[in-house]
Design brief:
The complex is a heterodimer of chains A (239) and B (315). With 239 residues, chain A is of the alpha+beta class. Chain A has 4 helices and 9 strands. In chain A, a hairpin with a 2-residue loop joins strand 7 and strand 8. The two termini of chain A are 22 Å apart. Chain B is α+β, with helices and mostly antiparallel strands. In chain B, helix 3 packs parallel to helix 4. Chain B contains 6 helices and 11 strands. Classes of the chains: A alpha+beta (239), B alpha+beta (315). The interface between A and B is large, with 47 and 51 residues.
Amino acid sequence: MTRRIARLSLVGTMLGLASMACGQSAPPMGANLEGVWKIAAPTTVLKPIAGAVPFTAEWRKAYEANKTLRAQRKFDDYDITLSRCSNPGVPRLALTPMRFKIWNRQGVVTFDYEWNRALRQINVGVPPQPDLMGQGLVPTMTGKSKGHWEGDTLVSVMQGGSDRTLIDDLVPHGYDLKVTERYRLVDANTLEDRITVEDPAFFKQPWTSVVTYKRQPDAIFAEDVCLDRIAAKQPAFSK
Amino acid sequence: MTTRIPFSVTPIAALMLAVTPALVQAQQGPPGPPPAGGQMQLPPGASGGPPPGAPTGPVLTDAQKIVADLPPPGPGLIPPRPPLPADAVMPTADPRDLQGTWVNNQPLQFRSQRDMYGALAPYTMAGAKVLSRRVMSLKAGKPFINASAICRPPGPQWQRDLNFPFSIIQDKDHVEVLFEEYHGRWYISLDPQGVPLPMQKQYMGRSIGHWDGGTLVVETTDFRQAIWLDVDGTPLSANGKLIQRMRKVSDVGRVPFLEVVTTIVDPTYYTAPWTIVRTFGWAPHQAVFAEYNCEEQVGDPSVSADAGLVPEPRD
């Protein structure tokens, strides 16, 4: 297993060189995030690094209402990820319990999730394209993430997300959600995502959480189909 | 190793690039005499039609006659796509490096009933009946439920055929294809011992590949269930096999394109293997995918879970 990880790191370094050759917002050496990762301490809660989530008074009520709905198992009334397998969005995807891969290719950092084959991308170098199909007019679960490199850290700012997602398994937000993430390698096998959440209507001030991941052996993921679990009366997120 | 081509590629040029065997396949009509209307000039004294003694066209089997009598497939379109920027990064010159983002550059083929040479597919009677049943269900306005309708992986052929981009990512021992639509993932192991494929059957099948010169040959088998090869329902049984030959075609001075020649092997529905071809344009500017989230609609309790489709009768 160790040998496999070492080989992956070497391949990753080579791929990093290839990216630099393409001249596409390549990360500096040593900051190659590519590989297979898994959350280090599985949780469904995005916990602030200090204090509690600073809800505004109005939206604390919405949070409490979500807790009541959860107790009543009325999942579709507040969490369509649990009830329908809808994409959890950003930042909740950061909490998925299964593995994910990171690819940094063609000016795009792609998060390739094992859970339901979900996808999330951070654009670090693809020029804006004409929106011929009008797709940009509709808020999406993962919004639009624009990224850049600050030294060894990938900084992503996500906006334009749908209000139909949650921050974690309970915390609501609105269309004005802005999620700033700072991804960096703590060491060769540990990835950190420092997440700052802003939404003035919902939170009195920005708040920050940190999620860490451990590198996993390279693998071909099994085809995970969340709707098959729902059809089998199993939870959307398998353990 | 990256090269840039110093000219822009307009949509028209992109369409010209699609003039390939695959497009020829799409444009071929049914065999028979040339259309009336005086377009063909014959020499004085000559009559139309084949000369005496010339071999006649292929004789259709009873199964093929069933398919030939079906309403023709709908005309496919190419959805609007942004043109390739003049300064776009080009694919590497390495023929064994297929990495990058590609998109089908031909009109969507709703029904692949002819092979790449224009011959009608060699249906068994069972294959003709299944296809006929599906086409007639469309005509009746009561189409059958398929994987696409219920937000399940529709199989590699359907997935590739859609006019939406996909990205190929390679390692030395496996290839991963990420599709914009259906959360599509197509994993190809080049070393099944070193990089094992999942043990359980997958909707997308089990794909093992190897390089044949500059062509990646991929055999896909072991499907979790029978799949539709296209929107009209050209069938492939769960025991069927797809053999895909993928290569990058590079003409000097032109943007390379990806060619995928697919041989369909399925004795349940076809009397012999038959082969279709598709081409895919280079699209690095479409590497940021639009989000696909069919679960939100499929699971909505206020709408029909099966999108108004009806269950297909079992054979």
